[in-house]
Specification:
With 150 residues, the chain is an alpha+beta fold. The chain has 2 domains: 77 residues, 2-Layer Sandwich (GMP Synthetase, Chain A, domain 3), CATH 3.30.300.70; 63 residues, SH3 type barrels, CATH 2.30.30. The protein is built from 3 helices and 9 strands. Helix 1 crosses helix 2. It starts with a helix and ends with a strand.
């Protein structure tokens, strides 16, 4: 990540934190001479509103305009993670506790590289998944990605 993008990310993280939300994803892309700042934000407990995304968007735009960080030629997108957001981190799986998820594994568990089930518990190194009337303990280092079942 370029130094300019890193500085923008740090300021965006501050803006997002001030609203009580978390920055989940951040990218600066350039298309045909126009820069696009893309942010995915959510509340720690989930459920960010459109109004909160709009507030964050306005503050990020104001910062970029004040500092001319991207030469006044940019678009800012602030989105919620959506219902089909992928699960990668401990925190992602912790938020999904009690819900049904699908996970793709780097190594088979019980002979399978894909599992579906309900998240029963999330520990430091593993999660407990109720799957086909069994409770499986799955190490985070074996999980490529997960997704909440809608």
């Amino acid at each position: 990540m370029a130094d300019r993008d890193r500085q923008i990310r740090l300021k965006v993280e501050d803006i997002v934190k001030e609203t009580g939300a978390e920055l989940l994803e951040f990218k600066v892309n350039s298309f045909s001479g126009k820069n696009v700042v893309h942010c995915v934000v959510d509340l720690p407990e989930g459920g960010i509103t459109l109004g909160s995304c709009a507030t964050i968007n306005k503050r990020v735009v104001a910062f970029l305009e004040e500092n001319d960080s991207l030469n006044s030629n940019c678009t800012v997108e602030v989105n919620s993670p959506g219902l089909d957001r992928k699960l990668y981190t401990f925190k992602d799986f912790f938020k999904a506790k009690g819900r049904n998820i699908s996970i793709w594994l780097s190594e088979p568990v019980e002979g399978k590289e894909y599992l579906e089930g309900q998240v029963l518990a999330v520990g430091d190194d593993e999660l407990s998944l109720e799957c086909e009337d069994k409770i499986l303990k799955i190490s985070f280092n074996k999980i490529k990605v997960g997704k909440e079942k809608i």
